[in-house]
Specification:
Layout (H helix, E strand, L loop, with lengths): L2 H30 L5 H9 L1 H23 L7 H4 L1 H22 L3
Helix pairs in contact: 1-2, 1-3, 1-5, 3-5
């Protein structure tokens, strides 16, 4: 497989995991505003860390693959090639911190 196709595949892996975490974060905001039923709110708060962990199973290999591929691109494309790595790392870290805070501090 050529380098652009590999980079697209790695970016799709990262995008899939990021979409899962962002969807959970949006549900978390709805749960904090009490816009959902009480047992749904509890489930969203309780299973947040599990959702982030499952998303990281897909996203972390994609991040590592994208990082290795970004080392092989020309220097002028280095910043653009490392974008999936930065986005995936930031979203997974944010999701993990929010999920841990929801579990330990929770309402």
């Amino acid at each position: 497989m050529s380098l652009p196709l590999q980079f697209i595949a790695a970016s799709l892996l990262v995008a899939f995991g990021v979409a899962i975490v962002i969807a959970w974060l949006l549900l978390f905001v709805l749960a904090l505003d009490h816009m959902l039923l009480p047992w749904v709110n509890a489930g969203i708060l309780l299973y947040g860390l599990g959702v982030v962990a499952l998303a990281s199973i897909v996203t972390v290999p994609g991040i590592m693959w994208a990082q290795r591929l970004s080392e092989r691109v020309p220097h002028r494309w280095k910043r653009q090639a490392s974008l999936p790595t930065w986005i995936g790392t930031a979203v997974l870290s944010t999701g993990a911190v929010v999920a841990l805070l929801a579990l330990f501090i929770g309402r």
